[in-house]
Amino acid sequence: MSPLISIIIPTFNRSELLMETLESVFNQTYENWECIIVVDNSTDNTKQVISSFVEKDSSFQYYYGMPPW
User: Fold this and answer.
1) Which one-letter DSSP state was computed for residue 52?
2) Other CB atoms closer than 10 Å to residue 66's CB: what's the count?
3) Whole-angstrom Cα distance, residue 45 to residue 63?
C-alpha cells in the first residue's frame, strides 16, 4: 500500500476558494490520503462547503473553533 499523505488546509472566510481547493483534492489520482481542514470561526458558508465533501468521502476531516492561545 502507498504511504498516507496528509493534506492540511487552514481557512477563514474563504468558502469560494475552499470549494475549488477541495474539488482539486477530491479529484486527484493518489488513493491513500486524508485532508484535514482547520476552520477558525468562519462566518461565511465554509461549514456547508466542507460538509458536502465530508459526506462524499470520509478522507475529509474538519475542526472548527479558535485555538486556545
Assistant:
1) H
2) 7
3) 15
Q: What is the pLDDT of residues 2-16, one digit of tens each?
A: 999 999 999 999 999
Cα(16)–Cα(19) distance, rounded to whole angstroms? Answer: 6
Q: How far apart are CA 66 and CA 69, in angstroms?
A: 8
What is the CA angle 48-22-35, rounded to 5? 100
Lookup: cell for 68: 486556545
Cell 458536502 maps to which residue?
Answer: 52
Given the C-alpha cell 461549514, which residue does it identify? 47
Rg (CA), the chain: 12
pTM above 0.70, yes or no: yes
Q: Which of 5, 3, 7 is nearest to 38 (CA)?
A: 7
